Amino acid sequence: MNHHHLSDTDIQEYVLHRENCRQEAIAHLDACDLCMRKAANYSLLIEAMALMPATAVDMETTASIMARLPAGRRRSRRDSVLVCLLAMAGGVIVVPGYLFRRSFLQVLENVPALLLCLVVAASLVILLFRGRALLKHYQRRMKMLEFS
Amino acid sequence: MQGDSRAFEAVIKSTERLVGQIVGRMIGNAEDRKDIIQDIYLNTFKHLPGFRHAARLSTWIGHIAYNTCLNFLEKRRLILPGENFLPEEEENAQASNAIESLIAHKQLTAILSEKLALLPPVYRTLIVLFHQEAMSYSEIGEITSLPEGTVKSYLFRARKQLKEHVLTAYKKDEL
Ligand SMILES: [Zn+2]
User: Fold this and answer.
1) Domains in chain B, please, with CATH?
2) What's the pTM value of the predicted model, to 2 decimals?
3) Which ranges of chain A would DSSP assign to H, the alpha helix?
């Protein structure tokens, strides 16, 4: 009989991934009672590990997490503030714009057409990029919440 | 926004077992656990938009959970697998039968749970992810940011330590 018994690593490898085990290790185990008993112990240990009770999250924790999710509420409040500000800004531009439309038109007539085109094109490009980023952000969030 | 909250509640439901296992095995104090679990999910919610599909959502949340626990332990200097383990005992033929006898007494899972708590937090977590959550070495590697080879060798050492603790308990009972 071989007096060099197998290491614990070899024995665990035999129990868990027999297909990766060295041939000599398997041959030793077949012939050695002590190593085979150690392997049997590991098998029992591994079986028992799967049966240990799991540590669970306290049920009230889920509720308190949901109660503490501030971003949602804060963000919706922030969103309404933003809408109000935009509406006010819109009012500030549109009302005087309507009242002084003639003077504005006169000013615009004096601005070179090329500069006007540049300003409009730049605004469109910025809008396009912002829109795309928003759409991507939304799609990513939706996709992720499907828990794939 | 309400839809987001509802969907997030579903995310919590689908990952609470894994998070509970990681936090439960890494953190001893029940009050600390509650705070840490809250931090994990609040952090998850905050970083959801940055989540990339390369990882599974559960693995990603597992990673956040593991790191949050690790940071907590680091602050208290209770970190990685240490050498704070009893000297190895030579396993004789009689002791080799010990685990089988314990099974016969239906005590093994109870003793295992008790002895698992004696291992370093990282070892406990690896044992639970591999043997209870049936995760692969690569998934555990993603959660813990450890290379697969390290995960494997830590698991070997963890099982060996656990087995020795169980055998020691058995011998004490016999005395
Ligand atoms: Zn042998």
Assistant:
1) 1-79 (1.10.1740.10), 97-175 (1.10.10.10)
2) 0.68
3) 8-16, 23-31, 33-51, 59-68, 70-99, 101-110, 113-144
Contact assessment for residue B40 and residue B65, using Cβ atoms and an 8 Å cutoff: yes
How does pLDDT run across A106-115, given as a tens digit for each residue? 877 777 888 8
* CB A40, CB B100: distance < 8 Å: yes
User: Which phi and psi angles does B51 have, rounded to 5°?
Assistant: -70, 130
Whether residues B23 and A55 touch (CB distance < 8 A) is answered with yes
Whole-number Å distance, alpha carbon B146 to ligand 1 midpoint, is 32
Tell me the C-alpha to C-alpha distance, in Å, between residue A86 and each of A92, A103, A119, B1, B145: 10, 24, 21, 20, 45
Cβ of B20 and A56 within 8 Å?
A: yes
**Average pLDDT of the residues in A59-73:** 73
At A38, the amino acid letter reads K
- Rounded CA separation A135/B50 (Å): 14
Give the ranges where chain B is alpha helix by DSSP (H). Answer: 2-26, 30-47, 57-75, 93-96, 98-104, 108-116, 121-127, 137-144, 148-174
Q: Which residue has the higher pLDDT, B52 or A138?
A: B52
CB atoms within 10 A of CB A37: 18
